[in-house]
Amino acid sequence: MSAAFVKAAKQFDALVAALPLSDGCEEAQLKRIAELQAESDVVGQELQKQLEAAGPLPGICLGGTTNRLHQASYGCIY
Question: What subcellular compartments does it reside in (predicted)?
Answer without folding.
Answer: Nucleus
